[in-house]
Specification:
alpha+beta, 18 helices, 14 strands, single chain, about 525 residues, three-stranded antiparallel sheet
């Protein structure tokens, strides 16, 4: 089979090369109807003279296209502007350099977050989001900071101890060479000792910085990155990407990034989902890593129904066995007492105690419940190893915890849907698209990039559900305060047509070819 000659002249426009169902058409339509200035996008103006800056629309279209197709490097995006016909159509053959492309993403993290929220409101308007059952989960994204550049007090002490031991070893060698009058070896050892002194000073400065920060760890490349438990005993210096996913079409309705584990993260992402969808209430399906009394109580106060898996306690030879976990003790709300599996009643003096946490907000109040029946109980060794008998602490958030536990036990089928709703999203983003790390530095910038990733995920999924032409039609019918005014769009359309008409050849400037 013979191909087309490379020298064959084609009379074809860029418009003819892009099919009507090409996703690039939706990107163009979506960015074209949004008032980016209202969302907070700001172009970088470097000089008062010379060529004008590229508009925000150019960079946003380029980034949406790039992330949709697995390209997020600014240098690779610059190359796409030159060789990719779809990008040439999308940007009208504008070719920004990689530095300008990179700056746009770094300069507009908050606006990218707002753009994600705006697209969620569009999806709700098109009835692609139900807002009744939402699954919440998180995943780790590797930070631009190596493990070697992350320190805690234990690691700093280990380095300082090694330096001290090595310094003593060199001092002993120095003494031996001094006796032998080996000047070359002495100079070499002194140089090594001096190097160790400088290293120790650096670790001491790092220790002071760690103490003044009040944090348990510090990272030197990206100060916001933290060493987080990824799976089992595996630790990575990373960020924790949170996502709330609607069960109707598995679309992301809320997302943000934190630099801590899931334990204290439930209420923030749940409230964000409620705000983005403007809901009165919804049911949140969450795994046991989020189980926290204070977080459950906050959701309860904000009319969010939680079904969070309950962590199981651990049994041991000399301590509590499964039959005597605290969940087996029955609480009597009217009498404010507990009844143990053996029928004994545990009561409280009514005094509130304070449990202090790492931060002030992580502390809570609780009451203690005891019974004298433990002294003669035949199964005391299976219930507790305390000499004084079993003791139960009931926190100020216990009501919310117990209500959640009841819902969890009564709705096993509903809770099982949690993995179906949101686990595959992280699989798609991290394994298929390769977005399991970030090259940006700082929590705010990383938040912006992760919002962009989730926005692109929603765009791709909504295109798969409705198709490009239908989605564009719904976009045109969408009523939003962030849409550009019709007069402005009409002016832009007229300007494009005028430019196209001017660029067409006229009889005066058309070359005449003689066939004589």
């Amino acid at each position: 089979m013979q191909g087309i000659s490379r020298y064959q002249l084609r009379l074809q426009s860029l418009e003819d090369t892009i099919s009507q169902d090409n996703p690039v058409r939706f990107i163009d339509a979506f960015v074209g109807v949004i008032d980016l200035e209202k969302l907070g996008f700001q172009p970088r103006v470097l000089k008062t003279e010379g060529r004008p800056s590229f508009t925000c629309e150019v960079f946003l279209k380029l980034y949406l296209y790039g992330y949709l197709n697995g390209v997020r490097s600014s240098r690779r995006l610059e190359k796409e502007c030159i060789r990719n016909i779809e990008v040439q159509w999308l940007l009208q053959d504008i070719r920004p350099n990689y530095h300008s492309i990179s700056d746009f993403r770094k300069d507009n993290p908050k606006a990218l977050k707002q753009l994600f929220k705006l697209f969620v409101s569009f999806l709700k308007n098109t009835d692609l989001i139900a807002g009744e059952t939402i699954a919440i989960d998180g995943t780790k994204s590797r930070a631009h900071n190596s493990k070697k550049a992350n320190f805690n007090q234990k690691k700093i002490d280990k380095h300082k101890a090694y330096i001290d031991a090595k310094s003593q070893e060199y001092l002993d060698q120095l003494e031996q060479n001094d006796i032998q009058d080996n000047t070359i070896a002495i100079a070499n050892i002194q140089q090594k000792i001096e190097g160790l002194k400088h290293k120790k000073i650096n670790y001491e400065l790092l220790e002071e910085e760690l103490k003044s920060s009040g944090e348990p760890q510090i990272s030197t490349t990206d100060s916001d990155a933290r060493a987080l438990l990824v799976q089992g005993q595996v630790v990575e210096v990373s960020y924790n990407l949170q996502a709330a996913v609607d069960n109707k079409h598995n679309l992301v309705v809320a997302t943000h990034t934190i630099n801590r584990n899931d334990k204290n993260a439930l209420s923030a992402i749940a409230l964000e989902a409620k705000e983005n969808l403007e809901l009165e209430t919804f049911t949140a399906l969450v795994d046991k890593g989020y189980h926290n009394g204070r977080e459950l109580d906050t959701c309860k106060q904000n009319n969010i129904t939680t079904i969070v898996a309950v962590p199981q306690g651990k049994s041991n030879e000399n301590g509590t066995q499964p039959e005597y976990f605290v969940t087996k003790f029955i609480y009597n709300k009217e009498e404010n007492t507990y009844t143990c599996p053996q029928g004994a009643t545990l009561s409280t003096t009514g005094r509130w105690h304070k449990k202090t946490g790492r931060t002030e907000e992580s502390g809570y109040m609780f009451q203690k419940y005891r019974t004298s029946a433990c002294k003669t109980c035949p199964v005391k060794d299976q219930c507790t190893s305390r000499k004084g008998g079993r003791e139960i602490d009931r926190s100020q958030y216990a009501d919310a915890v117990e209500e959640n536990q009841k819902r969890y036990q009564e709705n096993p089928q509903l809770y099982r849907k949690r993995q179906e709703i949101n686990e595959h999203i992280f699989g798609t983003i991290k394994r298929k698209w390769g977005y399991n790390y970030t090259d940006l530095i700082g929590l705010e910038k990383v938040n912006g990039e992760h919002s962009l990733i989730m926005l692109v995920y929603n765009i791709k999924r909504s295109i798969n559900i409705l198709g490009v032409p239908d989605l564009i039609a719904k976009l045109k019918a969408w009523n939003s305060p962030y849409k550009r005014k019709p007069l402005f769009l009409l002016q832009m359309t007229y300007l494009k047509l005028l430019v196209a008409q001017i660029s067409l050849p006229t009889p005066q400037n058309t070359c005449k070819i003689s066939l004589a």
